[in-house]
Amino acid sequence: MELRHLRHFVALAEEEHFGRAAERVFVVQQALSNSIRNLEDEVGVPLVLRTTRRVQLTPAGQEFLIGARQTLALAGQTVERARRAARGEVGRLTIGFVSGLAFGGLPEIVRRFRELFPNVSVDLRELTAQEQEAALRGGQIDVGLMLLPVRDPSLDSRPLWRQPLVAALPAEHALARRRKLKISDLQGESFVFFPRQIRATYFDQVMRWCASAGFTPHVVQEAIEVPTLLSLVAAGIGVFLPIEFFSRLSLPGVVYRPIEGAPIVEIVAVWSRSEGRSPVVRAFLSVAEDVLGAAGGS
Question: Which of residues 120 and 88 earns the better pLDDT score?
């Protein structure tokens, strides 16, 4: 049974006239008549009573009209769901993110995405960059957000936001009175930082930057979470070099200062190359770029 036959039947039932029904569905009258006869042959019972003045439905036709309308409505909904899925408007999206992004960037992106795509179920998973890469390869997440460049050939990535490093200082530190610093100003300071095995690329980037100024940072305390590191700064244990958007974390006892010539760290979105980029992932990337661009990213 073809959907066009059902459309022709519904048009005829509502117009009660072959000529008007044919015009409504954009076919000639003979084609509409043949379509109704084919439908009756398939159903096995008469559906319409034909007279010279009007068309009436048989009792079987009246019952068939109810089901025909329901079938056409369901078919329309099914087509629309497929089209919405192709536009990334329905489905499920699992996002991996490094912990620091929960304090800047991620909440704004997710809030906006949920506003625009309320029928997409969003699942957030806090993972290190290494864990995200493994989860992407294994299909446990659809897209990852991290601060590190990705060199795995099975993964594709796109920079979303570029942020300079800044100095996080104890509020009572002498350097906190300056409006802007040079990296050489931090020579001889105690540092708090991530363990290298957690953020190797980030760690090495900072070490090279300091080495270019003629010193190696003296790391006195390590922690894996940004809020913990900032708490150590507030306690006066050392200074820290986070990316700029972490300055949104207004922690008592911590001040942030820009540094001349600071390296730029990219926040990147990553997805599995083998899976291709799904419509939902494309929609998410578009929202992320818009949100971070409006927030001042490049």
Answer: 120
